[in-house]
Write a structure and sequence with these properties.
alpha+beta; two-stranded antiparallel sheet; 2 helices; 4 strands; about 20% helix
Length: about 120
């Protein structure tokens, strides 16, 4: 009986092993390549025409004050008032209804300016 190892090149064994791994990965539905990252998109640019438009989109929760529009450095912004002094609220929050498929996203990012962070930190 002949020795088969002497006839099979070493790199053929490596290729065969890799091919078996790929076949098993496909068979079990495992990803074999890196997922394509989702393109970045702006969910809400907060550039509302006025308070009424902003308040129609953003609903205050519990005892939070309504949102308001403002201008900062010549740009329209959304003001989310957190008035804890003299109040009885533990936190301020607002809901914004959106329909998004974020299944291919790795996360979301917020841009927030808070000049006096001590009361909320």
């Amino acid at each position: 009986m002949r020795n088969l190892q002497s006839r099979v090149p070493a790199n053929a064994v490596c290729h065969l092993t890799f091919e078996i791994i790929l076949i098993l990965a496909f068979a079990f539905g495992l990803p074999v390549s890196a997922a394509v990252p989702a393109q970045s998109a702006v969910i809400d640019d907060c550039q509302y025409s006025g308070d009424a438009a902003a308040q129609a989109a953003w609903r205050p929760m519990r005892c939070s004050a309504p949102v308001a529009t403002a201008t900062l450095d010549g740009r329209k912004v959304l003001r989310l008032p957190c008035s804890f002094a003299g109040g009885n609220i533990e936190r301020a929050s607002w809901d914004r209804a959106v329909k998004l498929d974020l299944s291919s996203s790795q996360g979301i990012q917020f841009k927030v300016l808070c000049r006096k962070a001590l009361p909320v930190s």
